Amino acid sequence: MFQQKKTKQILQGHKKQKGFIGRHKVSETKLLSGPKAFCDKQKGFIGAIGDDLPSLVPIFFSLLIFFGTLSYVFITLNEKNTYLEKYFESISVSKEALGSSFFSGYAEFEERVASINTTENYIVGLIYDPNLLGNEGGGTVDTLDRENFIKSCQIGNNEEYIIPYLNPDPYIGPDVYYTGKGADQDLCDSNVVHFFIPNDVQYLNNPTDVIDAKFIFKNQTPFIYFYPVALSTSEGVITAYLYVLVW
Amino acid sequence: MCWFGEFMKNKKVFSKGVSSSIATKIRSFWATHPFLKRAEGQAAVTDALFFLTIISVVSVLLFTSAMSYGKGLMESSTEYYENTFTVSALKTLYAVAVPLEPDKYDILDSNYNDNLFTVLKKDYFISSVNAAADPAQEAMLDINTQKKLMESLKKIMAPLDKSKNYLFYINIPEDVSGKQKMIFVGLVTFRDKYDSYTGPNPKTTYLCGPNPGKPSTLALDDIQLYLKKHSLGQRFAEGRLSLLVKSGVDDKLIIAHTGLISWTASPDFDPNDNPYDEKIGELLNERCCKYVDVSDAIDCSSVSQPD
Fold first, then answer.
1. Best interface-test mutation with A: which of B52, B98, B119 has the largest number of A CBs within 10 A?
2. Domain residues for B42?
3. Is residue A99 helix, strand or coil?
4. Segment B38-52, tens digit of pLDDT
5. Is B35 on the interface with A (CB under 8 A)?
6. pTM for the full model?
7. How many domains does chain A have?
8. Total domain count, chain B
9. Cα separation, B86 vs A180, whole angstroms
10. A212 lies in a domain?
11. ipTM attached to this prediction
12. Do A34 and B28 count as a contact with CB atoms less than 8 A apart?
């Protein structure tokens, strides 16, 4: 009896609420239970959806953050995987070019570089002092003729000269490599931006026309490796530097 | 939507539970307590905020994992490259030629060249013959041979000139008398703060001879441990060398170990101030190390401290 009276009082109380637009389906038990009774007494109650609306906002943001992070992570991992694959491949290329750290001459160098098996682009240079090379030594007169040198690598005020391997596509492609001189200099190790390579075969006839290496590397930063190697010449075994760029 | 709040309240559990009197008490408390009455309506929002917190933590973890992905691999690969460089440098040192003339260091200036280690072996053998004839003498490398060795090494290590210090040694674990003997120690390091040397290249070369009155050994393990402890990027390559020496009336072949250690250069090299260089400072003091240039001549028998 007391319960019925109380229910009636509460229902009347709801009807009197201003701004109440929901519908009542209040059981006796629920009316007696504290929380629900409290909810039903609130002003501005707009039904079940209205009750949950504030909680949807953080949930919406949560899902937004989660899927945003997830997509970013996937993109980042994909990029990093690509980078790491290229990095490991570049190490492999440099290791193949290095071999036993000894070159019996230019012919062996040429042979070893040509046998590198990779899908990446690379340049392998053997930097030494060409004055040390004679006809019976590591180089030949043709390969070390100054007139055929191409101005390639500029380090400060010092100029390096290179000889590209003359194949149909000597500048862009996996078969490109060069030799050079300047064993006592800094060897382009720190300033890649000063490293210049000609862009096409026509350059052979115009040694003054150089372009930035970025063109060759297609705006990618090449992986650079230096190794000291022994190079056999007619004068004796000298120190040379194997210079490997992979991009 | 309110699952968490409902669970916390244990409303249904208590209403259907055995202890109905307790449930009734909790319900009445819940319904009457002013604070809980206010909080009740926000149960769903609280759940959502918990969800947001969990998602934020998971997102941060995912983000940091993605950022650190591959770092270990990159470091290992860099380490591998530097190790390969050091090994290649040592191999090159074994192969290069030097002039046979005592005062020449470039093979272009010399008419007679030979392999560096062949020259070294020959030099040490002659010294051992003299030592066998005169017990007061000790077999050691000629200073010119030492300087040729250092010049060759400096040329080989030129690409790392500004970034690495390095030390090369030739150690005989057991010579003819059964004792350990360090026949060569060469060190190339920064020393611009330590002394007044202000040349174009702050790198300084030391040759370390046996110090009279002090053991002619080198605490290599200590140095390596020290470099490792201070994360100085130590790289190490070791080789072997057979040396022919005079032992009494016979010739004997002994095995020597060669080692090349490189580590990150410290521009503030000062064994007195910089603890990183403490061991190197000890080495310089222990081994009669002296700064040398190619044209310099040093006599370690009269020097006990580094200049």
1. B52
2. 3-68
3. coil
4. 555 567 778 888 889
5. no
6. 0.67
7. 2
8. 2
9. 23
10. yes
11. 0.71
12. yes
